[in-house]
Amino acid sequence: MERSTRKRKRSANPVKSQDNNTEQSCENSLDLNVYLTYDVLRMLFQYLNGRDLSNAAMVCRSWSEAASNEHCTRGPVCFIGDYSECSQVEHQIRDLYIKPRLGILFMPRIPENLKGHIDRTVPSDCEIVILYVPGIIINNEEMEDCLYPKVVCTFLPEIPNVSINTCQVIKLNSRKGYAAVEELNKMISRVPKVNHETSTCLMLFCNDSAREIANVMISALKKSHDDKICSVWGGVVDISYVHNSDWQVPYCIAVLISGAIRTWSTIIDVKCNTKEVIENRLKSFKDRIKLKKHSIGFMFVCTARGSAMHGKENVESTIFKTLFPNVPLVGCFGDGEFGKNTMDIDDAKEETSVNKQRNSGRNKHSRRKDVWYNEFSTVFMILTYG
């Protein structure tokens, strides 16, 4: 009986082209398959949330490359939630479209067992700052009398060549305040000088008891690093801070974001009490800004503004969203604001004669341009990258 001949696997020998007799290796077709696989991966990865995408990146080199490129297409995430049950917090954070590196939550009070739900969902290297505020803001909605369970959440992803560092004051004394300044000085000393590709922004929050220490910190930073810190944003609110699953309640916390970002901030001070003046200020602000692929806006408002000043709600946030329709806006109300004008303000062009008379005797401290602590003001900040 004849034995059937075993088929041999064809080796990838070079084959000659009939046109010019040049050898074309079968490796070229293999390379083509690799590229097709990459394209398929990119299409599939579009449907993964941030957690699953990060897990997929650990499979192999080609998956890691495809996942990394997909990560770069995803910008900051912000949303408003109704957290009558903490499990909703867990589900929404677990299903985030990005892998979060920094999260800021604005809420009127903390739900029970929130710590455990966040610990189970955020990565260990994600910084979480929870602010207890009298009112919340998202896009053109200013909810001044916000009641639980509404909460506004914003998350920044891991951004290539960008560092996010935090510094906090746990004990209330001036010594700790100066120690925090020294720690921030060390952080900022490692920050490169501002250029057309890199910049640095500072977010600062404190409670009412630490207002004096926060002023010490911000005055020292302004004196030593005014040229490195491009924008400042924050204010006086109650704080609960989560870091690496370890809950702490500091009196003051600073967040420093530096690297391949562009950032600007502006102060709508006590003189800006009409829609016309605010529009002029924000139009001047817009003229200085060049947005990149991903952007997010932050707004911190004094409780004395809003409807108390304008007679109706959503005035300032609506002006911002009209000028920056594609920039998501989040923020809150507070009692004392930290901010920096990253552009020169020409008050003479903005104020009408009526406003000059009306404001001539009001809060001269907030009129000064050389301070980073203000009252009766609104502070806007924009962060953009990509």
TrEMBL record:
Its domain of life reads Eukaryota
Q: Where is the F-box domain?
A: 39-70
Protein name (record): F-box only protein
Compositionally biased, Basic residues: which spans?
A: 1-11
To which species is this protein native? Ooceraea biroi
A GO biological process held by the record? protein polyubiquitination
Q: Return the Polar residues bias intervals.
A: 14-24
Region of interest: Disordered? 1-24
